[in-house]
Please model this.
Amino acid sequence: MKYKLEWKYVLNKENETYFTSDWMTANIAIIIGEDIEKSKKGKDLLFYDEKGTAWNLKELKKLSEIIEEEPHDFLIYFDGGYNKEEELAGIGVVLFFHQGKKKFRIRANELFHEMKTNNEAEYAAFYHSLNLLEELNAHGVTCEFRGDSQVVLQQLAGEWPCYEEELNKWLDRIEEKIKALNLHSIYTSIGRNDNKEADKLATQALQGKRIYSKMQII
Model:
């Protein structure tokens, strides 16, 4: 979860104005907030999270201590590969997150049968990433999903309509899962070269190589 600060800068009795910061991590926001309070030039200091909830400095410190021990700051890469002749989909997910002072990475793939299109494979990959989040008990967190399928990402974001019946079924399942996990989702389109790891996992799934690994990133 990221935060932005809003505070009133007081130059003198006649001159004061409001400032709003860029988005930043909780740790940096707290450090800056403490500095603003020490300067005695800032009043009405508030921190807004990505859901629009406001916190004062004391509340944010307490919240940060709680969140620190739970998985947070999720970044997910997903990709789907498709074998038209056999109607098989290989999907790959690379999931990064922080817990405590440590950073972790999960790599996972899966093979799906009776798939009709490559877009359906992409949806299956996205849905698998939600299953991984559920296994981590990730509730009420911010997740950034990165993929190279513009169609799927725009449909997930509600920017493009979806007319295919099978894809709408996936959309319904995904929306239901996101709602159940209370996720704040960010959808980011990336190029294929930036999605190589998830693409490789999807290809390996089609080759019959099942992969699941979790490791700490040093």
